[in-house]
Amino acid sequence: MAFAAVVGLGLSVAAPAVLPSDCHAQSRRNLEPSARYVSGTGQGFVLDVTGSRPLLRFDRSTEIWVLRATPAPRGDIVYRNDNGDQVLRVTADGRMTLYTTSAPQGSPVSPSGQAAPLLAPGLTAVQLWNYIIRQSDRASRALGRLVVVDVDIQPGSEAVAADALSTAVDAIARMSRSPTLRREADKIRRIEIVDQGRATQATFARGTLRIVIEPRAGVAGRPSSARIVRAVADDVLSR
């Protein structure tokens, strides 16, 4: 399968750090710092509340979801992803409900032991180059044609750029398997990752999926796959 990749490196630019959420700090008092859980539907996941933002990763998935905590009635805390979707609900005494596409009404969650904190691995520029080649090939295989990857970043942005690229390709692969989203996925010809912009974002226009990252924010410095899917779908539907 053919592929193409471009990497640009320059000087690093500082981006604002993510500040803690008061309601997140309140809710994590009743949660393990980093633990694995299983829902009533059998969906396992790791929830890490050791940092300023709660992180979640489902079993058999590489994507780390950065959640935002908001208060709810009766002292509950609702955790949403950056697309605004409700992912978890935690009661004042620590009981938890998971919301997914297969269980939109929610499924009760039980603890399943401790887990290591969710951290994105560090990468050198050479390692990133090799990673880009593999991800370009993966995207190209998902769509059955060439998908060009263009990464224009500065030193220090490698880990977040790789995470953003992997998340984008995960979104493309999921769209390619969906009967309702395959048409939108077929419009993608190029993925661009850059670290110079006002805020983390995902936009899609004229076949190019452009992702702006904030390296200093870590895994919170790139959009989720749900936000990427929405960016592509919204552009296609608006035509």
Description of the molecule:
This is DUF4908 domain-containing protein. Pfam families: DUF4908. The chain has 239 residues and is of the alpha+beta class. Helices cover 26% and strands 28% of the residues. It has helices at 22-27, 125-143, 158-176, 182-185, 225-237, and strands at residues 4-8, 34-39, 44-48, 55-58, 65-66, 68-71, 77-80, 86-90, 96-98, 107-114, 148-152, 190-194, 201-205, 208-212. It has a 9-stranded antiparallel β-sheet. A hairpin with an 8-residue loop joins strand 9 (96-98) and strand 10 (107-114).
Tell me the number of strands. Answer: 14
**Sequence of secondary-structure elements:** EHEEEEEEEEEHEHHEEEH
Principal-axis shape = globular
Mean pLDDT: 85
Question: How can the largest sheet be summarized?
Answer: 9 strands, antiparallel
Q: How would you classify the helix and strand content by structural class?
A: alpha+beta
What is the CA-CA span between the terminal residues?
31 Å
Tell me roughly what share of residues is in helical segments: 25-40%
* Integer-rounded radius of gyration: 18 Å
Fraction in beta strands? 25-35%
Instruction: Give the spatial strand order of the biggest sheet.
Output: 5-4-3-2-10-9-8-7-6
Question: Which regions are unreliable across 5 or more consecutive residues at pLDDT < 50?
Answer: 1-21
Count every helix, treating DSSP H or I runs of 4 or more residues as helices.
5
